[in-house]
Amino acid sequence: EVQLVESGGGLVQPGGSLRLSCAASGFTFSDHYMDWVRQAPGKGLEWVGRTRNKANSYTTEYAASVKGRFTISRDDSKNLLFLQMNSLKTEDTAVYYCVKLLYDQGWCFELWGRGTLVTVSS
Amino acid sequence: DIQMTQSPSSLSASVGDRVIITCRASQGISNYLAWFQQKPGKAPKSLIYATSSLQSGVPSKFSGSGSGTDFTLTISSLQPEDFATYYCQQYKSYPLTFGGGTKVEIK
Asked: What is the pLDDT of residue B87?
């Protein structure tokens, strides 16, 4: 079964750091681009960023709201995706989802994890 | 950034109704348009990509159409399990952007 399971969420103070993980199973993780998307409480979806696959040098893209503060990385040997979040702000409070992408006429979203809640508050 | 505008923001419909949701992009995105369904307290689910291609396992009552800047999601016969919030997304260029969502409620 293809599955994504996020972990690492929790309560953190403004200015703090947190590292989220996403464990992938049931597919060849190393072949796929992977994204992070977040959703603030009661709000819509916001794209956070992307890591490409090894064939594309693991390059990354970020939303302007997180660029310079968040870093996406991956460990293909362990089928893990990471989101390192530094200098956290209250507006980063959200459920964070990892997303597996499918290549078909471009890289599009295919499978979402269940999400992990990050709360930034003093 | 490409702005995605969905309409309506909410609608009330009855079981068996045909429902159409519209999504407009602020500039042309070719066919790089996806649709997602989200139920309360759950993760989004991918329904459609490339404007009209159904994700694996998605029933054929869902269909998508459009190109350029104007797109639609149609649910041919609304069922109780279809009451949810629907989002469109463009993936033509970075940053990827979503519409504000359309909440489909029971009349």
From this structure: 98
